Amino acid sequence: MQLTKKTFYIGLAAGSLLAGSAVMAADGAALYTAKKCNTCHGTDANTPKENTTYPKLGGQKEGYLLAQLKDIRDSKRTNGQSAVMITQPDGMATVSDDEAAAIAKWIASQPAAAGGAKTAAVAPYTAKMCQTCHGPDANTPTVSTYPKLGGQNETYLLTQLKDIRDGKRANGQTVVMKAMMDAMKVSDDEAAAIAKWIASQPAK
Asked: Which of these three, 83, 109, 135, is where a domain ends?
């Protein structure tokens, strides 16, 4: 009888843990905090700790966010500050697919951050055919796994542009963008002009 009771209570505890995990997985806001995402990206996912080198995330496309979360967790994306997300205690290294999906869903539901007040010429963006995939406003991507870009931090944008061009970031759809950047022969100055213009656009 004692063994039966023990087995019962162990089973009950396990069931409670599983139920708790299911609830947590469904609550993207709680997971966002539990996995320490707020430490670098802010409580609203739009006030990054390093406000030039970390991205604003709120309002980003859910499919893109999920793809990046899983690629960073699985070490398919390792450029820039990605390593920080893996080494953060209780961070991305411990996130399941369901949890990543819940986090991505919550971030995508947040209001997008306002764009920068800078002014810049659109010419480099269109001349290098960026609108082909990201839309004329940098916020209407043609594929769900492509990001909205308008209003993003200028330094972050420039870092990603150069890392993709130089093969330092090669996850997901970046192979398509690298091929385009190679074909268009995008220089450092042109990449800087593109980043400046995108950062100046209203986020949507």
From this structure: 109
Last residue of a domain, one of 109, 136, 159: 109
* Backbone dihedral angles phi then psi of residue 13, each to the nearest 5 degrees: -65, -45
Residue at 87 is within a domain:
yes
Domain presence at residue 2: no
Contact 91, 83 (CB under 8 A): no
Give CA–CA dist 147/115, Å, rounded: 15
* Token couple for 53: 């080198």
pTM over 0.85: no
Which long-range contacts (C-beta less than 8 Å, at least 24 apart) are formed by 171-175? 171/68, 171/71, 171/76, 171/77, 172/67, 172/68, 172/71, 172/76, 172/77, 172/145, 173/143, 173/145, 173/146
Tokens 């966002």 sit on residue: 32
Which DSSP string corresponds to 80-105? TTHHHHHHSTTSGGG--HHHHHHHHH
Residue 31 lies in domain:
27-109
- Determine contact, residues 91/85, Cβ cutoff 8 Å: yes
Q: Could you report the per-residue pLDDT of 99-135, keeping only the tens digit for each?
A: 999 999 999 999 997 766 666 678 899 999 999 999 9
Based on the domain organization, do 66 and 101 belong to the same domain? yes
